[in-house]
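Hey, can you fold this?
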Amino acid sequence: MTIQPGIYEHYKGGRYRVIDTARHSETEEWMVLYQPLYGEQENGEQKLWVSPFDVFVKTVTQDGHDVPRFRFIGNE
């Protein structure tokens, strides 16, 4: 599974840099590796996070409309 690297916006706001996908070493579940572009920094750098691929790309209902949880907004 792949996802386009770049900047994504969460449906509630907040932007994230998607770096790549990776497999979980125990379950082999696909994960999305990303970096929040806001909030607390550690040693001058944003922390890296992972989310299950299926959760990252799913849609949610907002104001009666199905919208992507994370919407691609462009390359860096």
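Oh, and this one too while you're at it.
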Amino acid sequence: MPKKKSTVLYLSKILYEKTDEEHGISRKEIEDIMQSEYGITFDRRTFYDDIELLTDYGMDIIKYKDGRDYKYQLISREFELAELKVLVDSIQASRFITRKKSEELIKKIEGLTSIYCAGQLDRQIYVADKIKAANEMILINIDQIHLAINQDKKITYKYFDWNSDKKKVFRHENKTYKVSPWAMIWDSQNYYLIAFDEDAGKLKHYRVDKMLNLEICDETRAGEQEFSDFNVAEYSEKLFAMFDGTEEKVTLQADESMVSILFDRFGMNIPIKKLGDGRIETTVDVLISDHFITWVLALGNGVKITAPDNVVDRVKTLLTERTKLYTN
């Protein structure tokens, strides 16, 4: 026989999971769930007292007639379904959260609503098709950075890029970076750290999901004056831009040194063909616009659009127009 348990706690759980504004549950159904799922012998004599106790506690429970029976339902809760959908959408859109962690977080969010509403959240999950970060330490990094900022301390870490074999390559021959963190930016679906680099004597930005072995130092932060004169919003606006247009399958040829940039923009599932002499080729689905073309041109001679012909022609036209603009 199971140990005697407090039925009011399980009654609360059942109402929270099995009911909502459109779904109720009868006392008999509650009795069956208590027995089958929790091994509790339901005490009908205390049922109405338990309902009253939960109502006094603040649960918005109503009773209504359904045929010859009465049903009970929890009609409001801390988060509305629309609010949970916003949270799910934000997690899906966040490249800095890994696929595994996204699925874990969304599953927890589903637990904040009924099984019926959780089904609607399930239908919104498209994590598998999203470009997601590969660094499982990302949330720990974010927490450590905020802690360092609150404690007025510097941080150390190693910073990496991806090569054409999709392996991590640490920058500057495995250098350990030491910077003073001042702010975080969530932009273009990624988290960025704004930090003061004493060696360079200026503020720089770093992708948080590309940091490994992050630790908080005992040293007090530097760069307070530089950050007081710094406008984070304006800096973010200058660095990052969105672009749209007609979707095309575009072939790019690039120096292998540019692979990490291509992975950042298009995800690590893009095909990589090695052409030799330090060059690679990839094909990506993009929305063609002047913004996209200028993004490629801004990469200099390291990246070139080679197909399709209509996109190559558009690049030539854009260059001709821009040349005329600056020669008149």
